[in-house]
Design brief:
mainly alpha, single chain
């Protein structure tokens, strides 16, 4: 164990102790009964840790290529964390998918393991909800007084979620059999539920009354978000223009794919026909989970030993439906493998049919060869230090870019033999993510919609125009989820472009390696080398994959 490995190990322990909610999502063990302190002292302690760790890192000896890369990954993350702290970004944050409210909820959900549930840890975490929300309230009030309040849109969405969680907590407690924790668990649920309702009232009352209505955060804040989520500096105007070009290219592919399914029919009619086709419907959540489980298992069997070498612990993905609506996402195995790699897939009506023609691409993104191989291999990689092994959650450009690359890769490898599934990949993933590039940059920078776009040309982006645009380009999932997406982008500047921009870097790096190596290029070896590097920012990834 090198001095850098020892430093990284100690840093992870200290980081996890200061942020148990994020540690839970990252699979770090040892904090199972605790929640993060979102009060001012907790925020300050995490900012101080980033500054202190950065100073110590610069004093720590680094040897060899492995150490050089490991130090660069940690240095990049610590510098961004320090910059976010200095800008006051952390203390006023409320967003719709990964803010404090969502992390508190997820930290409890992750303990919900059926017969394997650690009820003592559940009791501890649920019992800590009131304190965590109380601290968050103080932080938000102080941020508001300093002129750093979240926008009204984010406040309203978080209040809605707070009111949804108590029903889940009650259902969770009801599954606990009579035992020594019964009274304590019931009391913890009652306390947490009351705190959530009270916090929702605080959000829609005191905080909302002082919140700005304007959502756009501007170029400076957006660039900081890009550094945070992508680990790169972007020419935002070039990326915005590229987003329009990419959307046009994908929609041309969609038209060609639709023509092969129902020749002569317009795209909208083809999509509607697929939605209505019984061949692409599964009845109810239970049957749907079985369906995606079989799809995930088959993909691993087809890929293992051919395009990837899949380690034994990764040959099974656990597919689950989350207890409250939270989208579709993957969580890597816990570092001690006590939690398997898990795909969580929201099913809004558990008794209704689920349309499946868009599903395979998403499962390839979340499962194999997407996040499950990417982050699972990272978790098991003995050549990485502890921070690198658990840091996937901190590098969305790398991770989501790989997930979108995985969708395309499975097309190249012939896994969309049914043309409906290939159209699902284009309509359900690629089109949507290209539209995100346009919207995220356009709304936050309030850019002009270009001539020739065929959509409100010459006007500047607003959330209302964004919603109209997204409903036209989101694919089969448009509707109410589109409103959630707009809220999401406006609360997390830079995150939504991580998918398409990250994919762009992965594809460019692969093409550069193919040109450099010529006939000697081996796709499986490229994947092995790339994933062995572990998660990192996109600038660093590009540089490392360009090394001979």
């Amino acid at each position: 164990m090198t001095a850098l490995d020892d430093f990284a190990d100690r840093y992870v322990d200290e980081f996890a102790a200061l942020d148990p909610c994020l540690a839970a999502m990252m699979g770090i063990s040892g904090q199972d009964g605790r929640l993060t302190d979102y009060g001012p002292d907790g925020v300050a302690a995490r900012a101080d840790l980033a500054r202190r760790a950065l100073v110590e890192l610069e004093r720590t000896p680094v040897g060899g290529d492995r150490g050089r890369v490991a130090a660069a990954v940690l240095r990049e993350r610590l510098r961004v964390d320090a910059a976010l702290g200095e800008a006051g970004v952390r203390d006023g944050v409320l967003d719709t998918i990964d803010g404090p409210v969502q992390r508190i909820r997820t930290a409890v959900e992750l303990l919900d393991r059926g017969a394997e549930t650690d009820w003592e840890a559940v009791c501890g975490r649920v019992g800590a909800v009131a304190g965590a929300l109380g601290g968050l309230r103080v932080t938000l009030v102080e941020a508001c007084r300093a002129g750093r309040s979240a926008a009204l849109r984010q406040i309203v969405r978080n209040a809605r979620e707070c009111r949804e969680v108590p029903a889940y907590l009650a259902g969770l407690a009801a599954r606990y059999r009579e035992g020594p924790l019964r009274g304590g668990l019931d009391a913890a649920v009652a306390s947490a539920s009351a705190a959530l309702v009270e916090f929702a009232s605080f959000l829609t009352g005191e905080l909302a009354a002082r919140a700005p209505v304007r959502d756009a955060l501007g170029a400076d804040r957006y660039r900081l978000g890009v550094r945070d989520f992508l680990g790169t500096d972007l020419d935002l105007e070039e990326t915005y223009a590229w987003g329009w070009e990419e959307l046009a290219r994908i929609e041309s592919e969609m038209a060609d794919a639709a023509e092969r399914i129902l020749p002569g029919e317009p795209l909208a009619a083809v999509l509607a026909a697929l939605d209505a086709d019984p061949a692409y419907r599964v009845a109810g959540a239970e049957a749907f989970v079985a369906w995606i489980q079989e799809l995930a298992d088959r993909a691993i069997g087809d890929l293992d030993g051919v395009h990837f070498d899949v380690p034994g612990p990764l040959r099974r993905i656990e597919c689950r439906v989350p207890p409250v609506e939270s989208g579709v996402y993957y969580l890597a195995p816990a570092e001690d493998l006590s939690r398997p790699g898990t795909v969580w897939w929201t099913v809004r009506d558990r008794s209704a049919d689920v349309v499946t023609w868009t599903v395979p691409a998403t499962m390839f993104h979340e499962g194999a060869p997407g996040h499950h191989l990417q982050l699972g291999v990272t978790t098991l990689n003995p050549g990485l230090n502890r921070f690198q092994r658990v840091a996937g959650e901190l590098h969305p450009g790398h991770c989501e870019g790989w997930g979108l690359y995985a969708e395309r890769l499975m097309d190249e490898l012939g896994h969309y033999r049914d043309p409906a599934y290939r159209l699902g990949m284009l309509a359900g993933g690629q089109q949507f993510r290209a539209a995100r590039v346009i919207l995220d940059i356009g709304m936050h920078l309030e850019l002009e919609i270009p001539r020739g776009a065929g959509f409100h040309e010459g006007e500047r982006w607003t959330p209302e125009l964004g919603l109209e645009f997204l409903r036209a380009h989101m694919g089969p999932e448009a509707g109410a989820p589109a409103a959630f997406e707009i809220d999401r982008y406006l609360g997390r500047p830079g995150q939504a472009i991580a998918y398409k921009v990250g994919e762009r870097i992965w594809l460019e790096a692969r093409e550069a390696a193919r040109r450099r190596e010529g006939a000697a290029f081996d796709l499986k070896e490229f994947h092995r080398r790339a994933l062995d590097l572990g998660p990192m920012g996109l600038d660093l990834l590009r540089a490392e994959l360009a090394r001979p």
